[in-house]
Amino acid sequence: MTSIEHGRAGHPTTRVGTAFEIEAPSPRAIRRQRALTHPGFLFGATVMLLTILVAVFAPLLTTYDPFAQDLTQRLIPPAWTAKGSWAHLLGTDGLGRDYLTRLIYGSRISLIVGFGAAAIAALVGGSLGLIGGYFGGRIDGLVMYFVNVKLAMPGVLVALSLISVFGGSVPVVVGVLGFLFWDRFAVVTRSVTQQIRVNDYVTAAEAVGASRLRIILGEILPNVMNHIIVIASLEMASAILVEAALSFLGLGIRPPTPSWGLMISEGRNFMFFEPYLVAIPGVAIFILVIAINMLGDGIRDITAPEGRN
Amino acid sequence: MIRFLVHRTMIAVLVALTVSIIGFALLRLSGDLASALAGDTAKPEQIAQTAHLYGLDRPLYIQYVDWAGKALRGDLGRSLFSNEPVSFLIGQRIGVTVQLSFMSLVFALAIAIPLGVLAATKPNSWLDRLALGLSVFGQAMPNFWFGLILIIVFGVVLRWLPISGSDHFANFILPTITLGTAIMPAIMRLTRTGMLDALDSDYIRMARAKGLSTGAVLFKHALRNAILPVVSLSAVSLGLLLGGSVIVESVFALNGIGFLAFQSILRTDFPVVQSIVVFVSFAYIGLTLLSDVINAYLDPRIRIG
């Protein structure tokens, strides 16, 4: 009797009869395999990682100060144009600040706002969805009523008014945007929770007397987490777009903080003569948002039970 | 059907009531209304006098009932900035916003539905990829930035179209493209998914088997079923457009209620902001109610279930 060994270290093997050992790849191995062959996921993850590195190591990447004005060096176009200079790769803005430096530091604002707002929204919406989906009945009705009220309010308008009242600091913007994007978390978490609640392992946990909190956090939440992560990535992209729009309108991040939306707003005064001032930060937002969306779609494909194309 | 209608309308009224309370709270949150009304140089006695004159010294819930009662009769108060009635200001500009919203929705539907149908008929073809690419593009594009780029290209470089104002039809073209591009991806994806599901069903195989032309199968049989969720999404999108045109109207200086809301926020003219928030919410609630009724009428599963 020979046994055929296909299993590599770390992979569980299943013994069928006594003659063969058939390898059954672990869920983690399947996911890793799917991730490495998913172009959208790879692109999204790479851009995201690079942006995080740029944001963290911003001071090491540039010799300029993002706030330092030099009026003798105003409106220098990017280096590849005729009047450009290699001292300022992406040129300078209307106050003579190095544009690349402001772009690099601006990534910090976008990432902080994106992560912060998505985290708050996930916490608020996820909790409501779990509670509504698990308890059902009147409590569920109440949750859906909150969602309906939220959906009926014009979000951007309310965000603009709140920020104009509380002032345009980073924490205020993060908080306001967090409360702008929780509805989708609530809706999806609720419907997934409703599906999971009827499973045998939840009934079993109830039977052995586990507390409701323990069932929600220990049995249901881990199964909802994939969905929450996918929505978080999509809402993070939305939050970055809305932050840019609010800052562009002058009711988001306050100058002189380098935010990409604010840079477009400041460049708008010169856009007929120096369109690069508007184009460059816009392209940066566009690429980051595309990457986050692709990352989110990728995670959804990779974690979906049957895998998708 | 009657039970469904009554239930759905009750929820809508309840939501509308809550929204109006939040809208009212928004105004109070914005700071001391009496001192804003009395002016910067007012003395404390004058502020107290103003508060009494406008009834701002009464309990909040009485003020709310008073405000809501007047609002129901069309009296939304006066602008702190221009002292004109808010209902007059909104009435003056709502036409522009409604026109922009409808044009954007039509633009989005005109691209999204044919593209979604064609993409679904040939999954993973170049057409499907093009549709997917367009939807990724539309979703990731910062709206206001896309507007600016359109201004630079079509208004400044090519000089084909005007870049601001709201007097002529031509003024609406660039804003329509900007807003339409933003709402197009969701409609396209929904059409595509709906069509994929419909095309996979037995009644389509039946329709094909009895020898109907491809066009008749696609547009008469499949699209009819796939379009139901698109109807709901269109109603929701229209509601979002009414409130979400703030940014685009500001970029193109279109004189609609979004631009009015933006200017009023900058001037801390909160009676106007509050009225627009409540007005847009009510429009959204009305539109979604309407779409639910249409869907229930079209689809018996909804009104019974």
List keywords for this structure.
heterodimer; A: 309 residues; mainly alpha; two-stranded antiparallel ribbon; 2 strands; B: 305 residues; 13 helices
What can you see in these coordinates?
The complex is a heterodimer of chains A (309) and B (305). Chain A has helices at residues 27-36, 39-56, 58-61, 99-135, 137-152, 155-166, 170-178, 183-197, 200-207, 212-248, 260-268, 276-303, and strands at residues 13-16, 20-23. With 309 residues, chain A is an all-alpha fold. In chain A, strands 1-2 form a two-stranded antiparallel ribbon. In chain A, strand 1 (13-16) and strand 2 (20-23) form a beta hairpin. By secondary structure, chain B is mainly α. Chain A binds chain B through residues 145, 148-149, 151-158, 160-162, 164-165, 237, 241, 244-245, 248-251, 261, 264, 268, 271-272, 275, 278-279, 282, 285-286, 289-290, 293-294, 309, and chain B through 11, 14-16, 18-19, 22, 26, 29-31, 124, 136, 139-145, 148-149, 151-152, 156, 240, 242-244, 246-247, 250, 258, 261-262, 265-266, 268, 270, 273, 276-277, 280-281, 284-285, 288.
In summary, what is this structure?
Chain A has 309 residues and is mainly α. Helix content of chain A is 66%, strand content 3%. In chain A, helix 1 (27-36) runs antiparallel to helix 12 and helix 2 (39-56) packs across helix 12.
The helicity of chain A comes to 55-70%
Q: What is the N-to-C order of secondary-structure elements of chain A (H for helix, E for strand)?
A: EEHHHHHHHHHHHH
Which value, in Å, is the CA radius of gyration of chain B?
Answer: 24 Å
Query: How far is it from the N-terminal to the C-terminal residue of chain B, by CA?
Result: 10 Å
**Could you spell the SSE succession of chain B in H and E letters?**
HHHHHHHHHHHHH
Apparent shape of chain B? flat
The structure class of chain A reads mainly alpha
Low-confidence stretches of chain A: 1-11
How many strand elements of chain B?
0
Poorly predicted regions of chain B: none
Tell me the distance between the termini of chain A: 42 Å
Strand fraction of chain B equals under 5%
Main sheet properties of chain A: 2 strands, antiparallel
Average of the residue pLDDT scores of chain B: 84
**How many strand elements of chain A?**
2
Instruction: State the oligomer.
Output: heterodimer
